[in-house]
Design a protein that fits this description.
2 copies of one chain form a homodimer. With 201 residues, the first copy, chain A, is mainly α. The first copy, chain A, has 2 domains: 8-53, Arc Repressor Mutant, subunit A; 63-198, Orthogonal Bundle (Tetracycline Repressor, domain 2), CATH 1.10.357. The first copy, chain A, has 9 helices and no strands. The first copy, chain A, has helices spanning 12-27, 34-41, 55-79, 85-102, 104-110, 121-124, 129-142, 149-169, 184-198. The structure holds a DNA duplex (30 and 30 nucleotides).
Chain lengths: 201, 201
DNA sequence: TATAGATATTGACGCTGTCAATTATAATAA
DNA sequence: TTATTATAATTGACAGCGTCAATATCTATA
């Protein structure tokens, strides 16, 4: 008979993660503290230790959740799209670019190797997931040909990540732009399209 | 008659910045604290406030120094190289890639908008410097032609930054590699070369 | 109903950044 | 020379943080 309230919480762990995510959105990584999260949930400052041994563990669990969200997003969008690998790559790229634009603090956290434990059991399988999506499609294009799969994939993945990251930092803000801001990502994807063309893909 | 020792230090400001840089290399951004820096220089915990009003100000000043170093590096390397814009772009890229590989903590700090004040007087002129180097060369290639300068520059700059950043995070570590690690950057630069070719540059 | 295990609280510790008050030094004016 | 002023460093305090140990509380099981 699952009572979903024990004495102060049904699932404190879930509540903590939800609070952590909200704090991340509002204040950035530095705002996601053990005490701050506990405070927001309305629980004592040391309560989280039962579910996350560390601030590091908390941030790592949060990051794992975020990555899962992105994975689901990509999977859903890919279902609505043709089997053409290039189209699918563009789809993946767009999901990712949108994610970075709408949730800059979440995106930045994903790559903070100093506060997130990418070697943990929870993360080891996850941190490469988005990259793997890209590789899958590149594979379809390159199988049977004498082309280095990784060079293409790393090139695309690097450009994608770099663009999102630099945009979050504010690099491209006051730059004279003959291409409007919204079309810029598309221009980059199209640019990479020419790379594939060049390799005969 | 400039006595270079006042009562405890000649140039405490410089010494603090030097200590900050060392701590950054050894422990990463989180290791660069006001108190830790003061401790290393051998001065009281509140001494730095006279020269840097904040931890933020300290990190910002350090970042400004690092960017200056890179600028000097690039300028020097460009002197030893032909006037061919593509060659010069490759040179810039290589300097930057090497910097990221040898000083990962320094490179990461450059883009930490949460702890570095990129809007400060000191930074406003500096944070675009490396990007400007690239733009200068792209300009030489695109002037007179109906090609969007920024799309090319942003694409290259994004790929460059993204690759360095992802490499620091450890993304490409255990990945099957038909291209050896050292040749990877060159492969990417060459890949971008094909982009330029495609635009007829 | 008693016991055991999980879960939350309380209080303490050392660390941090920051500020105010104080002391020490250096440069300048009388 | 001595007195004055501005600069620079010290000391001590404060609240916040992460973490740990000891304690209290609730849940489930025997």
């Amino acid at each position: 008979m699952a009572t979903n309230k024990q004495f102060h919480h049904g699932g404190l762990k879930l509540a903590l993660l939800r609070a952590a995510r909200d704090l991340l959105d509002e204040e950035g990584e530095s705002g996601v503290g053990v005490r701050a999260v506990a405070r927001r949930v309305g629980v004592s400052h040391a309560a989280p230790v039962n579910h996350f041994k560390d601030r590091r563990a908390l941030l790592t669990a949060l990051t794992a959740e975020l990555i899962d969200d992105i994975r689901v997003d990509i999977e859903n969008r890919l279902k609505t799209v043709s089997e053409d690998p290039v189209t699918r790559i563009e789809t993946i790229a767009n999901v990712f670019i949108d994610y970075g634009a709408h949730h800059p603090n979440r995106y930045s956290l994903l790559w903070r190797y100093d506060v997130v434990d990418h070697e943990s059991e929870m993360m080891r399988s996850k941190s490469d997931i988005i990259y793997d999506f890209i590789c899958d499609e590149i594979d379809k294009l390159t199988t049977g040909r004498n082309i280095d799969r990784d060079t293409i994939a790393i090139g695309l993945w690097s450009m994608l990540h770099g663009y999102i990251d630099l945009k979050i930092v504010g690099m491209f803000e006051d730059r004279a732009d003959s291409v409007t801001g919204e079309d810029r990502p598309r221009a980059l994807v199209k640019m990479f399209r020419t790379v594939l063309d060049n390799y005969g893909l």
